[in-house]
């Protein structure tokens, strides 16, 4: 299996990055990922002010050039494994998150991860390991890795986890896939701006679909499809994700647009992925039982 | 058991309404509720333009005067039963919902409800009966029943269902409780602006708590507390609900505000209730396993 080490990272997605590996469609590979702070916070005494070079946050391992990937194709990323390392870090930081204006003093919490569990403030929490940053190069320019978008990026979506497939629109030849920013766990919303941020080793398979017309990232699990929309506000992100989800229901079930819209209202769930990044992310969850597939 | 018929309704919550019943704390009562269109859409040939008097939408049965309820108390509403009637209605309406601007022709769908199931566009959907409008009179003025707020109102929140308790801040003597707008089912977000809108018979118990300092509606189920925030935008609603949830975790677990904030980020879930009413509603779900209760 091909492997990429965690020193091969980018901080923005774009075609100016030089690929660190070339793979064929269908190949499975192992990528080591760095944590979102580039492992600059590892001891309880480390501080955001003194230890963190903020030009090095949100690294993603890659980019990976996928042979035969062309604009308007779709990259399918199947996630086989997310191995957590032995510790993660969570912070409360002035200005960060939904209530960042209420943080008086920044704080760093180093959190041991044992047997898929963490302890925080005296409580046990079961981990839900997921990939925070996962994406491809956009068609033009660069998108910093702290930002999500149609190309993927910092979607911070809980369902991007083992067993799921993530579908990403391809914008340039080779796709330029990259991933990083694993969370041992987080809640929907990621309200303080961080989950349990940790290094990891991820195994995934990259494939290319030629006949898929999704314009935003889509996640597939055993039971659901999720249409993932990112925009400046949650309200705009909802509109974007619902628009694409309704179009998918309409086309898949060959029903009128009105029927697909009402169906979405009755039986799909709008869910908050994250409310804290430069663009906000929501997803619309469609049960497969609703679909003619 | 005291009963209120569905002809005793209000269209806005406020102290100018005359109570239709007085109850003591701890009393269980049965209320019939009207559907959100006041049963003006009952046949497949009925239309929004020709059959609906829009001054009569969103009726709530009540108001009910609860003895001993005073400002700064909390009204606890425990929901024992939501009996659905034999049919409901869903509409796609020009201008209504997240994609209302894309609705070309309004449409009315009468939907039979059988054995807690509905069929829509060829698919079977299991009902999740819930109460859309549930609230008390605000301290000043009137709030139309189409609008949610700190007083409750049109929160359209799926978890307001059988087995749950809803806690509402009391603003005036007697509380002036009212409820209506039952949905046989809806998805989180209620994206087209309607669920399966139906008449129902609801059984609930009203109680008064004197030592509770919640400033927004809270829902309790076996496993979770939900803090429910409504505001002009989803982003503002998230901030409001998270603020109250973090304060609750801080006070309940006697931890620092920073710790409560990080705990919320790691293990609570921000959820969209509805994205379509004049104010939008989100809830923050806190697992009871996180709390020292």
Brief digest:
With 293 residues, the first copy, chain A, is mostly beta strands. The first copy, chain A, has helices at 48-51, 234-253, 257-267, and strands spanning 2-4, 9-10, 12-14, 21-23, 27-33, 60-66, 74-84, 87-92, 107-114, 117-120, 123-126, 130-135, 142-144, 148-149, 152-154, 165-169, 177-183, 197-198, 200-209, 218-220, 224-231, 269-274, 280-287. Chain A contains 3 helices and 23 strands.
Notes on the structure:
The structure is a homodimer of 293-residue chains. In chain A, 12% of the residues lie in helices and 41% in strands. The first copy, chain A, is mainly beta and 293 residues long. In chain A, the strands form four sheets. Chain A has a nine-stranded mixed β-sheet with strand order 1-5-19-7-16-20-21-23-22. In chain A, strands 2, 4, 6, 12, 14, 15, 17 and 18 form an eight-stranded mixed β-sheet that branches. The radius of gyration of chain A is 19 Å and the shape is globular. The first copy, chain A, starts with a strand and ends in a 6-residue tail after the last strand. Chains A and B meet through strand 8, strand 11, helix 2, helix 3 and strand 22 of A and strand 8, strand 11, helix 2, helix 3 and strand 22 of B.
